[in-house]
């Protein structure tokens, strides 16, 4: 049950988004699981409530609003630019007692507008900053797009770059891959043993020795995978200076203006990031024009890599007291619109606020 104080806070935020030109939208609580599984992989099952419908198949209780809002916008071919706001419950499994609520209100705001992405980024952040003013919150910004550009520019194979990009939202797996590709970590024992076996015999002979094929992969699929593993094992490591720059980028934390200066300094050594750094610079100009103090605004290049799996550019959070989940979060998700748009895409940015946490910080007690 949602308390009157939390409901009032949610309605205040919702009204503010409407005043900013957003059209109110609603989405079904039950969402097709297939789309979410395609986006997040099987990891989403650990965080979402999954059920089965006799007609529609596997379904999930709405874990967030962004995906269904993007789907609805892209399917409707609505005029652009477009702005949307929403208010409703989302549902998340929790690993242990004392974590955030399993069901809670979420209020959000999304902008679909390709005319000036930097201005749209700044507008969303400044709007959220104003709505949360006076609360004991720490804003932090980031930019996944810079890290992605750095990976795409590495002097290595497309297969290795694709693997790093696929795991960019799984920091431990990403780091393990980067360590191996850079020659900083040995090949895992099991993988080394497999490579030795593959090098000693033809894949078809090894498949025959292993017994009957079980599962969805055909013998051709297995042979192709074996060839890919051998090819990858022969690839030269990422050069030490290039790897060092990527490690530096992963750990970059500084005030936004200082972070831009640092990125400008390493761009000649990592030229693939130049367009992303230019976008970062344009965003800081737009933020400064809206009264945001970019000289002190915290920036972390890796922000969002553990919780914002569809963001591919600007990211932000407003952090509450130590150990608490973020009170608000958001960012840019241009690639998501392409994936859900059946060949059509549009730059998009948005974010959500958790009104129960805002109400708590204002001194209201939820029921």
UniProtKB/TrEMBL annotation:
Q: What Pfam family is a match, any one?
A: tRNA-synt_His
Sorted keywords for this record are: Glycosyltransferase, Transferase
GO MF entries: glycosyltransferase activity; histidine-tRNA ligase activity
Amino acids binding L-histidine: 64-66, 92, 106, 110, 305, 310-311
Q: Which domain of life is it from?
A: Bacteria
Matching entries from InterPro entries are given as: aa-tRNA-synth_II, aa-tRNA-synth_II/BPL/LPL, HisRS-like_core, HisRS/HisZ
GO BP, one annotated term: histidyl-tRNA aminoacylation
Query: Domain Aminoacyl-transfer RNA synthetases class-II family profile, which positions?
Result: 6-366
Tell me which GO cellular component terms the UniProt record holds. Answer: cytoplasm
Subunit field text: Homodimer.
Return the NCBIfam families for the record: PRK12295.1-5
Q: What is this protein called?
A: Histidine--tRNA ligase
Give the source species: Fuscibacter oryzae
């Amino acid at each position: 049950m949602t308390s009157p104080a939390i409901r009032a806070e949610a309605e205040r935020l919702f009204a503010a988004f409407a005043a900013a030109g957003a059209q109110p939208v609603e989405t079904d609580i039950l969402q097709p699981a297939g789309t979410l599984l395609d986006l997040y992989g099987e990891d989403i099952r650990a965080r979402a409530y999954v059920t089965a419908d006799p007609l529609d198949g596997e379904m999930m209780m709405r874990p967030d609003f962004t995906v269904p809002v993007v789907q609805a916008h892209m399917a409707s071919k609505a005029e652009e630019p477009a702005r949307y706001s929403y208010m409703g419950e989302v549902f998340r499994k929790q690993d242990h007692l004392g974590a955030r609520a399993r069901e809670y209100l979420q209020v959000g705001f999304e902008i679909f507008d390709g005319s000036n992405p930097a201005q749209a980024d700044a507008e969303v952040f400044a709007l959220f900053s104003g709505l949360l003013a006076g609360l004991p919150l720490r804003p932090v910004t980031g930019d996944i797009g810079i890290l992605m550009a750095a990976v795409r520019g590495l002097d290595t194979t497309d297969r290795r770059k694709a693997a790093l990009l696929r795991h960019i939202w799984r920091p431990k797996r990403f780091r393990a891959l980067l360590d191996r590709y850079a020659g900083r970590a040995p090949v895992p024992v099991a993988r080394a043993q497999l490579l030795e076996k593959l090098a000693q015999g033809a894949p078809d002979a090894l498949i025959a020795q292993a017994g009957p094929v079980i599962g969805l992969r055909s013998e051709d699929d297995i042979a192709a995978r074996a060839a890919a593993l051998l090819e990858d094992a022969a690839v030269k490591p990422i050069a030490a200076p290039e790897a060092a720059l990527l490690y530096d980028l992963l750990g970059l934390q500084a005030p936004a203006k200082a972070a831009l200066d640092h990125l400008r300094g390493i761009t000649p050594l990592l030229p693939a990031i130049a367009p992303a750094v230019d976008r970062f610079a344009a965003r800081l100009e737009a933020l400064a024009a809206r009264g945001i103090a970019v000289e002190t605004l915290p920036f972390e290049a890796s922000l969002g890599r553990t919780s914002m799996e569809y963001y591919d550019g600007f990211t932000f959070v407003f952090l509450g007291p130590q150990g608490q989940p973020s009170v608000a979060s958001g960012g840019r998700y241009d690639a998501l619109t392409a994936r859900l748009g059946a060949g059509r895409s549009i730059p998009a940015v948005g974010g959500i606020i958790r009104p129960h946490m805002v109400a708590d910080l204002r001194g209201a007690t939820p029921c």
